[in-house]
Amino acid sequence: MKLYFAPGACSLSPHIVLREAGQPVDLVQVDLRDKKIKENGDFFKINPKGQVPTLETDDGFVLTEGPVIVQYIADQVPNAKLAPPTGSKERYQVQEWLNFITSELHKNFGALFRPTTPDAYKEIARQTIEARLKWVDQKLAGKNYLMGDNFSVPDAYLFVIATWAQRMNISLDAYPNLKAFRDRMAARPKVQEAMKAEGLIQ
């Protein structure tokens, strides 16, 4: 498999999940500004959306949306128990988390990352993010991870969001459960492997 990624982008989520699943993967770095593959290729030929993450299997099957990619990875290695079984109530809760993170958190961070976003809109996005983080913090009370005691695929995505908060100077001090979750995730060996591979930590 190949994972097309940009360091620290949302592609870090499936990168973590691949390592947690023990799945071998070739990492292909993408320059998101120029839409070029680091090895000198046109990324639009792989993913016409021009976005990471993009997962390409050995038989040429391509997936381009992070929440779908992590579920696909989990289903390839069911013994790793990275997602509950298809059809279970818990599986729908995982999907609920993935949809919440992508629509309510990820998309609002996009406004902060774009240099052309007006300052007034950035402030609205920041307020929305902080309100959503407060809700997530409440949901994490008494839990190690979003689904309870064990890591599952939405945890990788939420961890990426927590790292973005730090980059955008959104303090997690007001969200002690989320901050503890961030630190717990950062200590996981496979998370550290992924971040080192992307040059995010030494």
Describe it for me?
The protein is α+β, with helices and mostly antiparallel strands and 202 residues long. It folds into two domains: 2-81 and 190-197, Glutaredoxin (3-Layer(aba) Sandwich), CATH 3.40.30.10; 89-188, Glutathione S-transferase Yfyf (Class Pi), Chain A, domain 2 (Up-down Bundle). Helix content is 50%, strand content 9%. Strand 2 (26-31) and strand 3 form a beta hairpin.
Give the averaged pLDDT, no decimals. Answer: 96
Strand order of the largest sheet: 4-3-2-1-5-6
Q: Work out the count of structural domains.
A: 2
Largest sheet: 6 strands, mixed
Q: Unreliable segments (pLDDT under 50, ≥5 consecutive)?
A: none
From the helix content, strand content and strand pairing, which structural class follows? alpha+beta
CATH class of the largest domain: Mainly Alpha
Per the CATH scheme, the topology name of the largest domain is Glutathione S-transferase Yfyf (Class Pi), Chain A, domain 2
Fraction in beta strands: 5-15%
Shape: globular
Secondary-structure element order, as H and E? Answer: EHEEEEEHHHHHH
How many helices in DSSP terms? 7
Number of strands: 6
- Terminal-residue CA separation: 25 Å
Helix content: 40-55%
What does the radius of gyration come to? 17 Å
CATH architectural arrangement of the largest domain:
Up-down Bundle
Q: Strands, helices and their partners?
A:
Blueprint: E1 2-5, H1 12-21, E2 26-31, E3 36-37, E4 41-42, E5 54-56, E6 62-63, H2 66-76, H3 89-113, H4 119-139, H5 153-167, H6 176-186, H7 189-197
Parallel strand pairs: 1-2
Antiparallel strand pairs: 1-5, 2-3, 3-4, 5-6
Helix pairs in contact: 1-2, 1-5, 1-7, 3-4, 3-5, 4-6, 5-6
